[in-house]
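Action item from last week, closing it out:
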Amino acid sequence: MFTTQTGAEEVTEAVGNALVDFLHAWATPLWIIGIIIGAVIANWVLLRILNRTVTQIVRGVKRSQNVDTTSEMRAAPYIHARAVQRTRTLGSVGRAVVTWTVAVIALILILGRLQVDLGAVLTSAGIVAAGLAFGAQNIVKDVLNGIFMVFEDQLGVGDVVTVDQITGTVEEVGIRVTKVRALDGTLWFIRNGEILTLGNSSQGWGRALVDFTVDARQDLEHVSDVAVSAARTLLSSDQFARKVTGEPEVLGLESVFGDRATLRLAIRTRPEAQWEVQRGIRAELRRKFAEENIRLADELPRQPKGEI
């Protein structure tokens, strides 16, 4: 009986010692694996919270305007649509910041577990960063310019912008690269540091400009009155009423060439609505001019004339 108990105790002790040796041998790898798993989980949770916050803000603004899509909201007060676009932009940048922050913290914890001198590492990193600042000036420039563009609200996700020869809709604003979807569907990747001149058609207000050429021998004052009347008729419709913020006006005579006179009609619109308003006005002008027997340039015979 005594012998059996002694043998069992020895086996238990041997198993315990083996387990202790195993934990000592694998403690560091297990800690590293645990840190990596914890970092992945923390990153996932933080991104979920960030995405949920962005979604709730966007839904709240849409609910207050009683619309379902952001495109509909562009006809609503400018500040609400801008709040949605700015929230999405900051969310896009925030996701990158969260991921990088979690990765850096996880790396520091792993180095600490490996008993690496963090002070020396940080000092070396500072020296390397100083060296890279000279060799990677473009990257630093891209990052800094991207941060300033976001916080100065120069552009946002959903904005229609023009950068150099590229015109399109902003799909994503990153810390280093901005993605712009052109009108033909091409997705452009533009380095933030290369954006020197930026035109944003989605901020403040727009202006619909329509040039029309008629027979110069007609009463141009009457033509102007008919043009304004046509624009007012169109803009009183449900489709265009909420897209306009001003009254139509003929700015005057733009040019005269022989028996052709070109006039310009202008009207202030909400952001991004100017192109749709222009198309609608052109169709309405043609219909109204036909009713008033006003001859457009394409209805005149081709005769070479000198420019006045």
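Closing note: The longest strand covers residues 206-215.
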